[in-house]
Amino acid sequence: MDYEVFLQGPEVYIPIILLSLAITLIAYGAFPLIFAKIRKAPITKKKYRWLCYGINLAAMFVFIILNGEANGSPYLLWTWIFSNRGVKILSSRGVLADGPHIYDTPDSVVETGSSIIKTNRNFFCRNCGEKLIENSRFCRKCGTEVPKT
Fold first, then answer.
1. According to the model, what pLDDT value does residue 112 have?
2. In a 3-state reduction of DSSP, which class is residue 46?
3. Which of 26, 29, 69, 85 is most buried per CB count within 10 Å?
4. Pairwise CA distance, residues 135 & 51, whole Å
5. What are the beta bridge partners of residue 111?
6. More reliable by pLDDT, 13 or 25
7. pLDDT of 106-115, one tens digit each?
């Protein structure tokens, strides 16, 4: 915003500031929030943050090309805010994969007497979300070693 715009008064520069803020929030918040809402496969917090910072870095470069100015502070601030919000969304949806590199989901549960037996278990890699082959030692997609369960 130029100094001449500032001299024209608040009726000119306040809408410009609000429009700039809206564009910034949409550009840096769209990917982290939409991705967190639609993600179905498990993802680690680290991988999710890398994706957020990478996509938003591309958005920052688009802003630099359009404006000709380089400022990384909005990129860092809004990516950090929206990626934290996305982590909370992923966690509440049960898609955030933390802890060991394996988790299971029971397809069916059979109740026999006083005990419950889980059958048809599917195991997934905590690193990439790929379905693991039974008794495999490594994920076939990312190569992560699977701990014995």
1. 42
2. helix
3. 29
4. 31
5. 116
6. 25
7. 444 444 444 4
CB 110 within 8 A of CB 117: yes
What tokens were used for 5?
A: 């715009």
| pTM of the shown model | 0.58
Query: Distance between the two ends of the chain, CA-based, in angstroms?
Result: 59
The four Cα atoms 41, 37, 92, 83 give a dihedral, to 10 degrees, of 100
Separation CA 146–CA 103 (nearest Å): 10
Cα 60 off chain centre by? 17
Neighbours of 51 (CB within 10 A): 17
d(CA 116, CA 95): 25
d(CA 70, CA 13): 21
In angstroms, the CA 56 to CA 58 distance is 5
Joined tokens for residue 132 = 């693991």
- What is each CA distance from 34 to 46, 52, 77, 95, in whole angstroms? 17, 11, 18, 14
Q: Tell me if residue 84 falls in helix, strand or coil.
A: helix
